[in-house]
From TrEMBL:
Family annotation (InterPro entries): PXL2A/B/C, Thioredoxin-like_sf
Descriptive protein name: Thioredoxin-like protein AAED1
Lineage: Eukaryota, Metazoa, Chordata, Craniata, Vertebrata
Protein's gene: prxl2c
PANTHER family: PEROXIREDOXIN-LIKE 2C, PTHR28630
Length: 223
C-alpha cells in the first residue's frame, strides 16, 4: 500500500489550486483547425468534442523525455473506463504525422493521437513558447528520469530517428483541456515548463472518471 500514498495525497488536494480560467478560453476560433492522424488523414479539431467530453493533452514534442514518460502513463488508462463514461482521451503533438507511429510504439500509448504540425492550435490558444520556472521547482509524478539522463535519451532518439529532426518546436510548451460536448471548456491548463504537466489523476477526476494508481499497476483508487 505504500506506493499508493503519494497519489492519494496528491488528488486529495484541491484541484482548484491549479485550475486556469477556463471560462475565458474560447475553442470556437480553433474549431476548424486541421489535425492529422498517423496515416496523414486530416480532421477538424472540433470533431474531437462535438458529441462527447474529451480530455485533450498537448505535448511539447515527441522527443521530449518528460512528454514520453507522461504519455506512457496516459497509455495505462483502460479504454473500457473511457468508453463506459463516453470520454475520449486524445494526445496532440506538433511534429509531422510520420512520427506518430514510432512514438506510440515507444510509449505503448494506444488511445487517440494527432498532430498539429503548424502549431496553429497551440498558437491560437496561447500556449507558451519557452519555459518559465517558479521559485519552487515544478515536479511531475509521471516523470521518472532526471534532466541529464532524460536529455541524453532524447538526443539519442533524435540521432537514431529515420528523419533527424526535433519532432516539433523544442521551445513549444503544451497543456491540457477538458472540453465538450460542443465547445464548452470545463478545464484548461497551460504548461509553464517541461515538468508542469497536469497530474493525470486530476484530469480524470475533473472529467468525472475514477483515479488510477500509476505506480506500476492499473488499480483504480476509490476516494
Amino acid at each position: 500500500m505504500a506506493g499508493v500514498l503519494p497519489i492519494t495525497r496528491q488528488i486529495a488536494r484541491s484541484v482548484q489550486e491549479n485550475k486556469r480560467a477556463s471560462h475565458d478560453l474560447c475553442v470556437s476560433e480553433v474549431s476548424d483547425c486541421l489535425i492529422f492522424d498517423r496515416h496523414g488523414v486530416c480532421k477538424t479539431f472540433s470533431s474531437l468534442f462535438q458529441h462527447n467530453k474529451a480530455i485533450i493533452v498537448f505535448v511539447r514534442n515527441f522527443l521530449c523525455y518528460t512528454c514520453k514518460e507522461y504519455v506512457e502513463d496516459l497509455g495505462k488508462i483502460p479504454q473500457q473506463m473511457l468508453q463506459e463514461s463516453n470520454v475520449r482521451l486524445v494526445v496532440i503533438g506538433q511534429s509531422s504525422w510520420r512520427h506518430i507511429e514510432a512514438f506510440c510504439s515507444l510509449t505503448g500509448y494506444s488511445h487517440e493521437i494527432y498532430v498539429d504540425p503548424e502549431r496553429q492550435i497551440y498558437k491560437k490558444l496561447g500556449m507558451r513558447r519557452g519555459e518559465t520556472f517558479m521559485e519552487t521547482p515544478s515536479s511531475s509524478p509521471h516523470v521518472k528520469s532526471g534532466l541529464v539522463i532524460g536529455n541524453l535519451r532524447s538526443v539519442w532518439r533524435a540521432v537514431n530517428s529515420p528523419a533527424f529532426d526535433f519532432q516539433g518546436d523544442p521551445l513549444q510548451q503544451g497543456g491540457a483541456l477538458i472540453v465538450g460536448p460542443a465547445p464548452e471548456v470545463h478545464f484548461a491548463h497551460f504548461d509553464m515548463n517541461r515538468l508542469d504537466h497536469m497530474p493525470i489523476n486530476w484530469l480524470l477526476q475533473l472529467a468525472g472518471l475514477q483515479t488510477l494508481d500509476f505506480s506500476g499497476s492499473h488499480k483504480i483508487i476509490h476516494i
